[in-house]
Specification:
This protein is α/β, with parallel strands linked by helices. The protein has two domains: 128 residues, Aspartate Aminotransferase, domain 1, CATH 3.90.1150; 223 residues, Aspartate Aminotransferase, domain 2, CATH 3.40.640.10. The protein has 14 helices and 15 strands. It starts with 15 loop residues before the first helix and ends with a helix. The structure holds pyridoxal-5'-phosphate (PLP).
């Protein structure tokens, strides 16, 4: 049994989550539940492997070991039931960077990229920064009988309409979805694959949260759902969220189609960004060969945290409801019934409850009235946060 209740002081380790509160929120006396890394100790089988490598005193250029892509392919096969050829996998130095490289590789001036807000904000920011236009196909909200959000569906009519524009050349998909934690089902992914392929819109499927499906939900890799999907996509994955090693940078892409693969692999090779650092190799190998049990226990703990937040909000707070995620450690909180303005909601969380969460509006206008809560932390921290929130209300 691993211990996820341990509280570890991260302040002073140059981590964004704690050491940039002042810059981000204007004060640092806040409980930190925003950016998406966890407060759990990185498992010992990873830190031990790194320590072992540190015993050798030279840190020169690494080479990619023979087993590296075989280990990744084995993990993807056993975790998601997707058999991929290890030659179809390449390291990339972060998924957001991978998206930017894919845009620069495949798009031309004037091309447009579809995103489905509310969605992980770098999809928009990176696309704009790379000089391309963003076209939004907002997701369709689903409500319960009390008017609280329970999830979203893809607007297929909207997607069809947008993809018919010949200048729309790429779609960025969050699978599973961030911030709402939806593990998209096969029919949804097949529908997206059919429309995008027919219209020549390349799909970039960001699956960084895919290893963190909860409560018996399945992660379905986009490229695995149909021939259309395999022939027209780049899938990005990583062990970084699951094993809390985002700072080590250990992402990779998987491309089934030979034409897309050759073009992208050549592009990233020409930029010399397609080989891992010493520590990415060591950490990925340890995570993907020894991490199965830890992952299971971590997911059970996170699921317990979600139960805790969900029932606590129902019992103590009128006007805020958790949208239960099917994947990962982020909870989309529907706060609209508090009736606060955007600034009022931020003021409640930051200045009154002393809590740093992600403001829902950063994921798109559709996120206004929502907050994103990171529950990848010891339950006692969540309890303290919820008590502060109740007091503030
Ligand atoms: C959907 C999604 N994609 C990508 C990232 C960041 O990935 P990377 O650090 O590999 O760029 C995050 C981090 O929160 C995320 O939630």
């Amino acid at each position: 049994m691993f211990n996820f209740d341990e509280i570890i002081d991260r302040k002073g380790t140059d981590c964004i989550k704690y050491d940039s509160l002042l810059n981000t929120y204007g004060r640092d006396d806040l409980g930190s539940f925003w950016i998406a890394d966890m407060d759990f100790r990185t498992p010992g089988f990873i830190t031990d492997a790194i320590k072992k490598r540190l015993e050798h005193p030279i840190f020169g250029y690494p080479c990619v070991p023979d087993d590296y892509y075989r280990i990744i392919s084995g993990w993807v096969g056993s975790t998601h039931g997707w058999q991929v050829d290890s030659d179809h996998i390449r390291y990339i130095p972060g998924i957001v960077k991978g998206i930017a490289f894919a845009e620069r590789c495949f798009l031309h001036p004037g091309d447009k990229v579809v995103i489905q807000p509310p969605v992980y904000h770098p999809f928009r920011n990176t696309t704009l920064a790379c000089g391309f236009e963003v076209v939004e196909n907002p997701m369709l909200p689903v409500y319960d009988s009390e008017g609280y959000l329970t999830g979203y569906e893809v607007d297929f009519a909207g997607l069809e309409h947008i993809c018919a524009d010949p200048t729309v050349k790429m779609m960025i998909l969050a699978n599973p979805h961030n911030p709402c934690g939806i593990a998209w089902d096969a029919a949804t992914l097949q529908g997206i694959a059919e429309i995008t392929r027919r219209n020549g819109v390349l799909v970039i499927s960001d699956e960084i949260h895919g290893e963190m499906v909860l409560d018996g939900n399945l992660h379905i890799p986009f490229a695995s759902v149909s021939k259309d999907a395999a022939a027209n996509s780049i899938v990005f994955m990583a062990p970084s969220k699951t094993f809390n090693i985002a700072g080590i940078v250990s992402s990779y892409c998987i491309i089934e189609d030979a034409g897309i693969r050759d073009r992208f692999f050549n592009y990233i090779a020409s930029c010399e960004i397609d080989f891992p650092s010493i520590f990415s190799i060591v950490a990925t190998r340890a995570a993907y060969t020894r991490g199965g049990q830890w992952r299971q226990e971590m997911l059970e703990y996170v699921s317990g945290n979600i139960d805790f937040v969900d029932s606590w909000l129902r019992g103590h707070v009128k006007g805020i409801r958790a949208v239960r995620p099917q994947a990962s450690f982020l909870i989309w909180l529907d706060c609209r019934k508090l009736g606060l303005s955007h600034d009022g909601l931020i003021d409640l969380f930051v200045n009154k409850a002393h809590l740093a969460l992600n403001d829902g509006a950063m994921f798109g206008a559709e996120g206004d009235g929502f907050m994103r809560l990171n529950v990848g932390c010891p339950r006692s921290m969540l309890k303290a946060a919820l008590e502060s929130l109740e007091k503030a209300l």
